[in-house]
Amino acid sequence: MLSIYNTLTRKKEEFIPISPDEVRMYVCGPTVYDYFHIGNARSFIMADVLRKYLEYKGYNVKYIMNLTDIDDRIIKKSIEEKIEAKLVAEKYTKAFFDDIEKLKVKQADVYPKATDHVQEIVDFIKQLEEKSFAYNVDGNVFYDVSKFHDYGKLSGKKLVELEAGARVDVNEEKKNPLDFALWKKAKEGEPFWESPWGKGRPGWHIECSAMSGKHLGETFDIHAGGNDLIFPHHENEIAQSEAATKKKFVNYWIHFGFLNINNEKMSKSLGNFFTARDILKHYSAESIRLLFSQTHYRGPLEFNDELLDSSQKGLEKFKNLVEKVSPHPVPLPKGEGVSPDFDFQSYYKDFESAMDDDLNTPQAVAVLFDFVRDVNKAIAEKENLPSEFYSNVKEFLSKTAQGVLGIVDLEKSEAQGSSVEKELIELLIGLRNGARKEKNFALSDKIRNELNELGIELKDSKEGTTYKKVKK
RNA sequence: GGCGCUGUACCCAAGCGGUCUAAGGGGAAGGUCUGCAAAACCUUUAUUCGUCGGUUCGAAUCCGACCGGCGCCUCCA
């Protein structure tokens, strides 16, 4: 039984989807005005882990992530770079897909764009206007928060308190400082769409209400995003959608913690950020994902190179095991060999109960490390293990470490390269082993050290010498 | 000012009333194996969970106070 912490109720709740086999899930995607940073990546990755775990459990997941491709920041960027807003959005949309793929994040079923849904958005606003939740002031349309009595239910804020402590800019046009724009009137030179209120563009919050409704229906299971979206973004989405449909918008609200640098939130405005793209130049997706998985998704996550290094180091344990079980040297026929009393089921059970508990990935990772240690022990202790043992090990890692967490890549062969390169390395290994036989260790060590310099590590074992390429 | 989160070893980090003399990763130290390495395995590294009280047969876990840190309340994952 999966339980999930629901921001709306501030409790862990048993997860029960609307339809028994299907989960409908919406995750707030990027505003494509720049490369996304590694803090954004945390949300994308943890949402990916949640999605993959739901699939692991047998649900058919319908996963939608929006792309905000028209907004103030995009317009600002287009002015700075003197190119059309549309081209800014296109450039960073492409970058988004490139980066997300490198991070081994599975594609969403649909990536709806705001600019492709202007009609739906306009219709949505009209509906709100008809129901008196919206008012038009000279081409700007605002949502009237005072009309929505549940306003504040997600963030736990009370309207009066919000008003008292309001730090929002005073906008003469708004009835209430907390009212927010549904439709923004276009200024001179800005991109615009025609609407009943004149030329303009959608506000930010409305696109999610319109697009999630279109792709997932009026009520759906999961809506996820970063902590900072709770207020006002998600609060406003609820206000819009529930005012329009009179139905519950979302059953489970899930929010991810921030990524901290020196105990401070990483953000564009503070300037203390790294783009995911830059981090990926030095670290693998697996390292990043392991680091993220070792902290619970709701808490803050401390981020720096040392931590990335340590997770990269930890990954070696998985890689070495994969290497050990992958091209099993002497594949035994089924049923032969000494069967170790190794209880794979108990590791699946432990992995699942960790994940079932509000996605306790740190605990799940601990189970995987225990598994690796125990498998290594079994291999070291028993001589002839049946081939099923090796395939069971691979299957376990494939389903959990790779399939859900994305911290290993079984397909990635360690010793790749051109065949000539391979043969050259084999040749040198042969020479070195000749030298070793003659106890010419000076020569054998020289060969090993120099290969090492080239990024090729040798390992001697009873079965012979193997090598792997390491990143320099 | 309002709301919320948080303080566990050298670092990161689980744990949410008994199974905790507290997982897991990194680091450090010692050992087994090895010609030497590497990998792997074993052992050690918090009798203690910010501080002080309280509740309880029993608390890292609940309550209170205090001392730190962080976030949201404005665009933000």
Span between termini: 44 Å
Structural class: alpha/beta
Poorly predicted regions: none
Strand proportion, as a percent range, falls in 5-15%
Order of helices and strands: EEEHEHHHEEHEEHEHEEEHHEHHHHHHEE
Please characterize this protein's 3D structure.
The protein is α/β, with parallel strands linked by helices and 472 residues long. The protein has 3 domains: 277 residues, HUPs (Rossmann fold); 91 residues, Four Helix Bundle (Hemerythrin (Met), subunit A); 51 residues, no CATH class. 46% of the residues lie in helices and 15% in strands. It contains 15 helices and 15 strands. The strands form 5 sheets. Strands 4-3-9-10 form a 4-stranded parallel sheet, sandwiched between helices. A 4-stranded antiparallel sheet has the order 5-6-7-8. Strands 12-11-13 form a 3-stranded mixed sheet, with helices on one face. Helix 14 packs antiparallel against helix 15. The protein is elongated and about 90 Å long. The mean pLDDT is 90. It binds one RNA strand of 77 nucleotides through helix 1, helix 5, helix 7, strand 12 and strand 13.
Topology:
Elements: E1 3-6, E2 11-14, E3 22-27, H1 38-56, E4 60-65, H2 72-81, H3 85-102, H4 118-130, E5 134-137, E6 140-143, H5 159-164, E7 180-185, E8 200-202, H6 204-216, E9 220-226, H7 230-245, E10 250-256, E11 259-261, E12 264-265, H8 276-282, H9 285-293, E13 301-302, H10 305-325, H11 344-356, H12 361-381, H13 387-405, H14 419-437, H15 441-453, E14 456-461, E15 464-469
Parallel strand pairs: 3-4, 3-9, 9-10, 11-13
Antiparallel strand pairs: 1-2, 5-6, 6-7, 7-8, 11-12, 14-15
Helix pairs in contact: 1-13, 2-3, 4-6, 6-7, 9-10, 11-12, 12-13, 14-15
The protein binds one RNA strand of 77 nucleotides through helix 1, helix 5, helix 7, strand 12 and strand 13.
